[in-house]
Amino acid sequence: MNASRLSRRAVLAGTAAAAALTTVPFLPGRAHAAEPTATTPTYRWRNAVMGGTGFVTGVLFHPSVRGLAYARTDIGGAYRWDDRAATWVPLTDHLGWDDWNLLGVEAMAVDPANPDRLYLALGTYAQSWAGNGAVLRSDDRGATWARSDLTVKLGANEDGRGAGERLLVDPRNSDVLWLGTRHDGLLKSTDRGATWAAATDFPGAASATGQGVTFLVAAGRVLYAGWGDGDGTSGTKNLYRTSDGITWEAVPGQPAGTAVKVPIRAAYDRFTRDLYITYANAPGPNGQSDGAVRKLCTATGVWKDVTPVKPGGTTADGSADDFGYGGVAVDARRAGTVVVSTNNRWADVDTLFRTTDGGRTWTSLKDTAVFDVSETPYLKWGADKPKFGWWIQALALDPYDSRHILYGTGATLYGTRDLKNWAPQIRGIEEASARQLLSPPVGEAHLISGNGDIGVMYHESLTASPSRGMASNPVFGSSTGLAQAAKKPAYVVRAGWGDNGNGAHSNDGGQTWAPFAAQPAIAKDAPGPIATNADGSVLLWTFVHWDGTKYPAHRSADNGATWAEVSSFPKGATPVADPADPTLFYAYDTDTGTLLASTDSGLTFAARATGLPSGDSQFKLVAAPGRSGDLWLSVKWNGLYRSTDGGASFARVESCWASYTLGFGKAADGADYPAIYQVGATETITAVYRSDDGAKTWVRINDDQHQWGWTGEMITGDPRIHGRVYLATNGRGVQYGEPV
Predict the structure, then answer these.
(1) What is the pLDDT of residues 29-58, one digit of tens each?
(2) DSSP 18
(3) What pLDDT is attached to residue 387?
(4) Does residue 353 contact residue 365 with C-beta atoms inside 8 Å?
(5) Scanning 67, 196, 433, 566, which has its CA 20 to 30 A from the CA of 13?
(6) Own/partner pairs, 141-147, CB within 8 angstroms, 24+ separation
């Protein structure tokens, strides 16, 4: 869907949007390694099931173990397929707050000779504000890990993230590993990944801005490396090889032209000794408009053009059929049987092509595909039926079943066992970037979530993907605002990036929606947070462009039929409604450190408390439920502040020194104040905490194996179930915890 192009996955790292998404969460001078405490209660953590919802960038079957496979994602870690339970098992949830940049998996590798060994190359961004990459090494299929920190950066959520595996175990010696980087050439390890050094004989020159190595693949005992920094002319080289693990050379006779500028992936047919390579004129997943498939006979050095369909044609409606090629997989049981994928084919929709004769003829699997998305209904994207998918670069063919194919998209992982009937094989993978959470006090659903890429979901069950799919009328790509009237919980409003409107309201608690009758002109280009007052009679909508530009807020007193600018509201601030008094709204001006309040239902705002922390990149102003004027302000590493007089004054809460996000849930038995949940630090640990005594004391409720990288976006408790908490993550969906 077009809205996905505005999502977190489509925006280059380093822009204001990417920086805002990652919100560099370092606390100088403090330790953040999670430590168990004697007071930690036992919690069970699970995902609120949505089903995928993110870009699966790689799938890897183990060549010598039936049913063993691994998947990698751009921001949500890695997974192992549990064949017996028919589910994917997350492998990197133990990565904590300081390691948020390691939740993106650049590459993975298995050892064909040692089935229990697994390697991951981690690093989400290669920008100056991100940390260096790391390699995780496991001898038990990812159950436990050893870690090697790198001196270079990797880019699992940057352009080229859907390219081939840049990590490879040398088939001649299992102690030797190779790692291709984007900007620092080729690295080599001779001690199973414990230490790394530059492969000085590799001819690809390190580049500060290029793609570098795009894949590593073994063809027998010869290693091949794709190089993404050529310009497509006959004088450039983009494929290298080594037969001795020391000396690298350019492969002779390689093709030239813009269609073969960037080698994307490669796969080797051991029967015919052919190496199949997919190409595009850009690394992808966006920006590709040309591409090709080539076959190299490694025995003779002869190249052949085996491109199924050449890009650049015209569709039936006259649109340009521009695209590149992405995934490629060979059949380990049948000579000459190969599957490739198109990528970035928006006009005629991406497909898989399959050949059984070495590329002489191809069949489009899309033409006969039948989809069953009943397990993840959101994949209909508000339409009658799902499409084949987009951003198809991850592609794998089961070495033990020639008709079992998996391919990843920007939202899911599809699988077939008969080449015709397809269904998501995504169970266990949850990669949403969750941004807003509501836990209604009444109704069927205990959770409504607002997410990147997949809009808003009404979770009538926490263990199954929402039956209504994405909230429609209109459909949003990414959600920017979600609010419920405290005294009228049937009334819910939402905002986001959409093609047919950017705001909507619901009168049945979020089950069905209708667009606002009108919206401010700026809403199309800069939808931001939205709030409704306690009785649902007034809306306040703020506007922030994805590049960070802030615009004046607007107010509606007729359910979105008309809007008027509120000049006294601080630009870009998040409006907060008083949960008890419909005439009260609040806003925190982060530029000046000022709390503003409105006593006339949002018509005007005036300053109250001043001199509060300012300039911090992360603030959360939250109103305690059921109370008027009881405000809590979490200010990243400046700590937590509370006001009991509607923002006229604030006092620092001394029980914690860092607070990133805060929310409330049902009070404990006998307690006179709601349970408080936060992501923050009470001593030296950045973790998830609960307080049942009004923030006098805290207990940690997550553990070392459940940290999920960066978790500072939003947290809320359940108003109906004490102890249950919902936590938004950036890449591992909505986690919910319950005491056991």
Answers:
(1) 333 433 434 456 899 999 999 999 999 999
(2) H
(3) 85
(4) yes
(5) 196
(6) 141/68, 141/80, 141/115, 141/116, 142/70, 142/78, 142/80, 142/89, 142/91, 142/118, 145/94, 146/194
Q: Which residues of 8-20 are buried (b: 16+ CB within 10 A; e: fewer)?
A: bbbbebeeebbbb
| Residues 494 and 530: beta-carbon distance below 8 Å | yes
Of the candidate CATH numbers 1.10.10.10, 3.40.50.150, 3.30.1380.10, 2.130.10.10, the domain formed by 434-739 belongs to: 2.130.10.10
CB-count exposure of residue 464 (10 Å: 0-12, 13-18, 19+): middle
Strands 370-371 and 421-424: parallel
Which CATH fold would you assign to the domain 51-424?
Methylamine Dehydrogenase; Chain H (2.130.10)
Domain ranges of the chain: 51-424, 434-739
Q: What does each C-alpha distance from 564 to 518, 538, 570 come to in angstroms?
A: 11, 12, 15
DSSP state of 20: H
Q: What is the DSSP letter of 731?
A: S
Six-digit token pair at 331?
């059949």
Question: Residue 710: which of 689, 732, 725, 738 has the closest Cα?
Answer: 732
Taking the chain, what is the end-to-end CA distance rounded to the nearest angstrom? 41
State the catalytic residues. 74, 453
- φ, ψ (nearest 5 deg) of residue 125: -130, 145
- What would the two tokens of residue 104 be? 């993106």
Write out residues in the chain with pLDDT < 70, as ranges: 1-40, 232, 234-235, 616-617
| Token duo for residue 589 | 């001006």
3-state secondary structure at position 366: helix
Q: What is the C-alpha separation between 637 and 97, in angstroms, rounded?
A: 13
Encoded tokens for 654: 């001394």
Q: Which amino acid is at 214?
A: T
If you compute the radius of gyration of the chain from its CA atoms, what whole number of angstroms results? 26
Answer yes or no: are the C-beta atoms of 477 and 453 closer than 8 Å.
yes
Assess whether the region 51-424 and the region 434-739 belong to the same CATH fold: yes
What pLDDT was estimated at residue 473? 96
Q: Which residues contact 75 (CB under 8 A, 6 or more apart)?
A: 8, 9, 54, 103, 104, 124, 156, 157, 431, 433, 730, 731
Cα separations in angstroms, 14 against 10, 126, 154, 451, 549: 12, 9, 13, 21, 16
Which secondary structure element, helix H or strand E, spans residue 363, and what is its range? strand 363-364
Q: What is the pLDDT of residue 383?
A: 82
pTM assigned to the model: 0.94
Q: Which residue has the tokens 């667009």?
A: 515
Residues 358/342, Cβ–Cβ less than 8 Å: no
CB 592 within 8 A of CB 547: no
DSSP strands (E only) in 514-623: 514-515, 527-532, 539-544, 550-556, 564-566, 576-577, 585-589, 594-598, 606-607, 620-623
Bridge partners, residue 642, by sequence: 632, 651
Residue listed under structure tokens 């390694």: 33
Q: Tell me what pLDDT residue 41 has.
A: 85
CA distance 658 to 642: 14
Residue 157 pLDDT: 97
Q: How far is CA 598 from the centre of its chain?
A: 37
| Token digits of residue 95 | 């990565």
Mind listing the pLDDT tens digit for each residue in 239-257? 999 999 999 999 999 999 9
Amino acid at 273: R
Work out whether the CA dihedral 668, 673, 676, 681 comes out positive or negative: negative
DSSP string for 28-89: TT--------TTPPPEEEEE----B-S-EEEEEE-TTSTT-EEEEESSS-EEEEETTTTEEE
Residue 445 identity (one-letter amino acid): A
Query: Cβ(353)–Cβ(364) under 8 Å?
Result: yes
Question: Both tokens of residue 341?
Answer: 């994928």
Is residue 214 within 8 A of residue 160, CB to CB? The reply is yes
β-strand pairing of 177-180 with 514-515:
unpaired
Alpha-carbon distance of 445 to 718, in angstroms, equals 11
Q: How far is residue 187's CA from residue 135's CA, in Å, rounded to a whole number?
A: 12
